[in-house]
Design a protein that fits this description.
The structure holds two protein chains of two kinds. By secondary structure, chain A is mainly β. Chain A has a single domain, classed as Porin, CATH 2.40.160. Chain A has four helices and 22 strands. In chain A, the strands form three sheets. Chain A has an 18-stranded antiparallel barrel. A two-stranded antiparallel ribbon of chain A has the order 8-9. A two-stranded antiparallel sheet of chain A has the order 12-13. In chain A, a hairpin with a 2-residue loop joins strand 14 and strand 15. Helix content of chain B is 18%, strand content 43%. The chains are: A mainly beta, B alpha+beta. Chain A: This is TIGR03016 family PEP-CTERM system-associated outer membrane protein.
Chain lengths: 436, 269
């Protein structure tokens, strides 16, 4: 984390060694380039990116006006040893907000087939499933909300975890089973880059005093995470294939929203079951997903542990006119055993509503031969009366260089709601990336 | 005697028509010509693989490149088929995979895999006539436009070509008011297609620049699309094409999106 000399040299050496070579390689389009990857054995790629983000208004609790200030060098390598695929992705970055150099391992996986119908993917990897667009019900793999809020590339929203994924493929259904031996929480808003609302104090808080340092589950087998998905395609609606899936999870809430007897935040046990459908509807895509979150240690009466919930999502996306696409989603969270909660929390004024609804909208437009893309994603909750807008514009100068400008704009009527608490985190950012 | 003549003329007629079938019968039914051209252009063999490279040039001469491998398998000749497109260049689209279940007369099923997010995204069937990965080709140029979406009329039969006019049955379904296709009489390869707007002005042209016979199938090895309004062009070169590899239907599934089928993507011998 700290500013050590070694990573700084690594970064410099990497940049100096890789740049000239790949500047040349990037322009090579001779006839023999058809065979390049095959001959090379290992494919080396990556990018260098510089990003700056600035708060729209001051957050008096956080020293830094900048929400993002970094130079990042990504190195990706991929090779095959027979049928075994090895892939690694690592970022070296200088972070002006957290003031230091850091190494971030994005991926380190080995992939192979056990039998004709069974694949294994083991190692540090990004995992995603489910049907929501920036809404996750049955996808309980780790998210990086700090990256998402600060304007890093969308890719960083999905945080990697050290897991083993076994996939079995059948005629009518497939099964994915993921074991994450050591619990991997979200990179949640801890008070370090962005402040948050604390229901305990009834105020907005930030690091150092308000920094959330949760108690992590011990590293035992039973405290690992187990995720499963059974899925397939069938022709339920006409000729279009409908994707169906059933999901299960056993682990912990991904955010430290329980308080233990030492008055410390912790990740309370969670199991979940769910299902989803996705298919062509009219000239667009419709999807729906359901999840039942069972908060294992709570019958609803313990206000220090989140109650069980039902989460539901439905959405539709369609091209309105060529190159302009609109997506709309409706989502709700329904707290179960609400009466027990309200009877035991001492009439807390910050008790969440029994029913939280959320609408999202995505508007995307492509222009200039797809080199210019506009994206506007908004969350709006009519029950919390808060919102989160994510506009962005990306211009691709060529195959190597692109520039992204965007914003993360939060607001709401009340200071304690999901998005309302991040009003002072609102920021505008710019990212310039050079890929090789 | 008259009976003998009758049989003889019948034999002659039969011989002539047999010759015609083998050699240069001039087809006159536009639907039959288009249907045959469709099979030649998009259904060669039961399956096929090809590596492809695009050079996208805009009006200012700025260039972009795409490199990918296409796998295809026909479920039925002239009917449903599946495509898997795996990108290897440039690095920001590397390992992106595109899967299409083409359903002539219905909505295609289409998926995109984004490796950075491990995300399998379903894409709506609506935007088939928009840019394929930033090139001047449309998605529909790559997987083929269903011949049942247009009416076809034979305008002219020259020494070398059948010239066919095609008009969309639903004028709102496409940006053109009609397109003219020059279909090679010998190979049935559509060698040139010109798209016209509502003022009969040609604004888009797709041409075959080179082709060769591979495993008995006339195969395009280089083509070009010109956007005559913007002045941009994309050339598309194909290499390492093979047909009838014996691919299984399972190659075209979510498994291949997350783990591209190396067995078929590799060049082989």
């Amino acid at each position: 984390m700290g500013a050590k000399i070694t990573p700084r040299y690594w970064l410099l050496i990497t940049i100096l060694c890789t740049f000239p070579r790949y500047l040349y390689a990037a322009d090579d389009w001779g006839d023999d380039a058809w065979g390049e990857e095959e001959k090379q054995g290992t494919a080396i790629h990556g990018f260098i990116e510089t990003a700056v983000g600035d708060r729209v208004s001051d957050d008096t609790l956080v020293d830094d006006a900048l929400s993002l200030a970094e130079v990042r060098a990504r190195l990706e390598a991929e090779t095959y040893q027979g049928a075994l695929r090895l892939s690694g992705k690592v970022d070296l970055y200088a972070d002006g907000v957290e003031r230091g150099f850091d190494i971030y391992l994005r991926e380190a996986v080995a992939e192979f087939s056990l039998t004709d119908n069974v694949d294994v993917r083991a190692g540090h990897q990004v995992l995603t499933w489910g049907t929501g667009d920036l809404l996750f019900l049955n996808d309980l793999f780790a998210k990086d909300w700090v990256s998402f809020f600060s304007g890093r590339d969308d890719e960083y929203l999905k945080a990697p975890s050290s897991s083993i994924k076994v996939s079995a493929y059948g005629e009518t259904a497939n099964i994915d089973f993921v074991w994450t031996p050591v619990f991997n929480s979200d990179n949640f808003i801890s008070g370090e880059r962005f402040s948050y609302f604390s229901p305990q104090t009834g105020t907005q808080v930030a690091a150092p005093s308000g920094k959330i340092v949760p108690d992590e589950p011990s590293e035992t087998f039973s405290h690992g995470e187990f995720s499963a998905r059974i899925y397939g395609r069938s022709h339920l609606l006409g000729r279009s294939s409908t994707e169906w899936a059933l999901y299960g999870y056993r682990g912990f809430w991904k955010q430290p929203n329980g308080i233990n007897s030492n008055n410390q935040a912790y990740f309370s046990p969670l199991t979940s079951l769910g299902a989803s459908l996705r298919t062509n509807v009219a000239s667009g895509i419709g999807h729906t997903e359901l999840a039942w979150y069972n908060s294992v240690d709570d019958d609803g009466s313990n206000p220090l542990i989140p109650n069980s919930q039902i989460r539901f999502l439905m959405g539709y996306e369609q091209e309105l006119v060529p190159k302009l696409t609109l997506g709309v989603q409706y989502y709700f969270e329904h707290i179960l055993d609400y009466d027990a909660l309200s009877a035991h929390d001492g009439g807390s004024i910050y008790r969440p509503d029994e029913h939280r609804e959320l609408w999202t909208m995505r508007l995307s437009y492509r222009a200039l031969q797809d080199n210019l893309t506009f994206n506007w994603f908004s969350f709006y909750s009519p029950t919390d009366q808060d919102y989160y807008h994510r506009p962005s514009v990306k211009y691709r100068f060529n195959d190597q260089v692109n520039l992204t400008l965007g914003g993360n704009v939060f607001g709401g009527k009340q200071k304690q709601t999901f998005f309302g608490q991040f009003e002072d985190a609102s920021n505008l950012y710019a990212r310039l990336r050079w890929s090789y | 005697m008259s009976k003998f003549i009758g049989i003889k003329s019948l034999l002659i007629v039969m011989a002539v028509s047999a010759l015609n079938t083998v050699y240069a019968t001039e087809l006159t039914d536009a639907n039959a010509i288009v249907s045959k051209a469709n099979l030649v252009a998009y259904y060669a063999g039961n399956d096929g693989r090809s590596e492809a490279r695009m050079l996208i040039t805009d009006a200012q001469g700025r260039e972009q490149k795409r490199q990918f491998t296409i796998l295809r398998r026909d479920r039925e000749e002239g009917g449903e088929q599946d495509f898997l497109v795996v990108f290897s260049r440039p690095s920001d689209v590397r390992n992106t995979v595109f899967l299409v279940a083409k359903k002539p007369g219905g909505d295609d099923d289409r998926w995109l895999y984004l490796p950075g997010l491990d995300l399998v995204k379903r894409i709506s069937a609506g935007d088939k006539r928009t840019s394929f990965v930033g090139s001047h080709y449309f998605y529909e140029d790559v997987s083929g436009r269903s011949i049942t979406e247009d009416s076809h009329q034979l305008l002219e039969t020259s020494d070398k070509y059948y010239v066919i006019e095609n008009k969309p049955l639903d004028p709102n379904s496409a940006e053109f008011s009609r397109y003219i296709a020059w279909i090679n009489k010998a190979s049935f390869l559509p060698e040139k297609i010109e798209y016209q707007d509502e003022n009969d002005k040609v604004y888009r042209r797709v041409e075959v620049l080179a082709s060769e016979v591979i495993q008995g199938h006339e195969t395009v090895t280089k083509s070009q699309v010109s956007d005559l309004r913007s002045g941009g062009t994309t050339t598309l070169a194909f290499r390492f094409q093979h047909y009838d590899l014996g691919m299984d239907q399972a190659v075209f599934s979510e498994r291949s999106l997350r783990k591209p089928p190396r067995e078929w993507l590799q060049r082989g011998e």
